[in-house]
């Protein structure tokens, strides 16, 4: 991998056995006052977020406007959008920019000379090509892999982290809802709580519409009396145990607008070892950065993609990363290198675009855990391990992820192990 693709950020130093530090956790506020200008401002934010990273990897100093009229090839940056269609096609492929002199004008993207491409609505790309009339760019090259930033421990600092692992590797478990059905009640949650982990991450839905139909209590009461009471009992098993809860779009106690959070628990005093984070979230477990989301971003990318791959085309960074592997790897590359938890724009689900900083993935995590209807997988994408725990719509036949985080001294180069396990076969 070309080292130019990554900017290395030093990890903060800490020495507690297990320390969880929130980086980006959202709390809902004023979501019913969505302004018409939010989407336009979000496009501007995304372009400004990405432009310097593209300049760095392409070794250029400026971009021309999208509608710059020229018979000479030039570089420009824009966001891919659909026009007059509900599905991205070669005929409905347009780009827009509102950070230059383009004035939000849609410009058609002509890709007839390209042999390889992978587009989706909302994608930030750099185009090298000509625009003879000002309203259509004839693309010669498409660049969609900018530099990204990620966290990394410097070798001479590794001894500082070793104190975090005096009792061996740190065990992390990821388990997703729903946790209830009418016949077995909370059996799946009870089974996972039988085993002890240093950090247990529970993804919603915790209380969905099927569950509320069978209870007379409010969703908040169901969560407190059935879910939270079990978790409080679990953390009493060990002084250093931590539990992280991530809400799901199907949780009935959320507002229903992404990003989601546990608003009804803001005034409740919780055990310090029980952490209510948002969807999405970025946080550290010791020196490892985790990114989590329960929204099906992977399926959205997969279903919206316009893809072409003709062989014998010259290799470049985009080709090496996007077209030499399987479809899942390609989708994951888009997710990491677009630096966003919601790269598809506009989304078919309600999103508060005003809170765009909570939608950014400005630092690539060590682990990105997703809950998608796509197949379960583990992929190394650049500096990030992307895992899909899957969408487990019923509590039957559930599986979960175990991650073992190792000290640098004991790792022999690989700092983690990952296993996908079936709950009913749990030892």
UniProtKB/TrEMBL annotation:
Record-given protein name:
DNA polymerase alpha subunit B
- Principal localisation: nucleus
Report which superkingdom the organism of origin falls in.
Eukaryota
Q: Which UniProt keywords apply?
A: DNA replication, Nucleus
Q: Which GO terms describe its cellular component?
A: alpha DNA polymerase:primase complex
Q: Name one GO biological process term.
A: DNA replication initiation
Give the family this protein belongs to, as stated in its UniProt record. Answer: Belongs to the DNA polymerase alpha subunit B family.
Q: Which GO terms describe its molecular function?
A: DNA binding
Is the keyword Nucleus in the record?
Answer: yes
